[in-house]
C-alpha cells in the first residue's frame, strides 16, 4: 500500500484529514448554536473550537500513531483560542472583513500546528 511507510507526506495527510474533520465538526456546532449567539449567549462561541480540538486530538493519534500528550492540547488550545482572539479584535476594530478573518485564523492555526507536529515527529524518530 502507498501510505504504509512513515514519511512526511503520510504525516501531513494524517494532519490534514484530522484538521478537516475538526473544522467540519466545528462548523456543524456553529450552525447549531447560531440562534443562541444571536440571542446574546456569546459563551456558546467556545463550543466549536472545543469540539474541533476534541476531534483533532482524538483522530490524529489514531491515524498517525503519534501520542500527543497534554502539552499539545495546551499548545493547540493556545493556537486556536489565541489566534481567534487576535483575529476577533482585528475584526472588531474594523481592520479585517469576516472572510479575511477566517482565512487569517486558518493559516494561523494550520501552519504552526503542522510545524509543531512535524518537529515532534522528528524528535521521537517517527520517520525511521
Describe this structure in words.
The two termini are 18 Å apart. This protein has helices spanning 8-38, 47-64, 70-92, 98-123. It has four helices and no strands.
Keywords:
elongated, 128 residues, mainly alpha, 4 helices
Write the layout of secondary structure elements.
Elements: H1 8-38, H2 47-64, H3 70-92, H4 98-123
In summary, what is this structure?
This protein is mainly alpha-helical and 128 residues long.
- What is the approximate shape? elongated
Distance between the termini: 18 Å
| Beta-strand residue fraction | under 5%
Structural class based on helices, strands and sheet pairing: mainly alpha
Number of DSSP E strands: 0
Q: Count of helical segments?
A: 4
User: Main sheet?
Assistant: none
**Run of helices and strands:** HHHH
Mean pLDDT across all amino acids:
88
**Cα Rg:** 16 Å
Helical content class:
over 70%
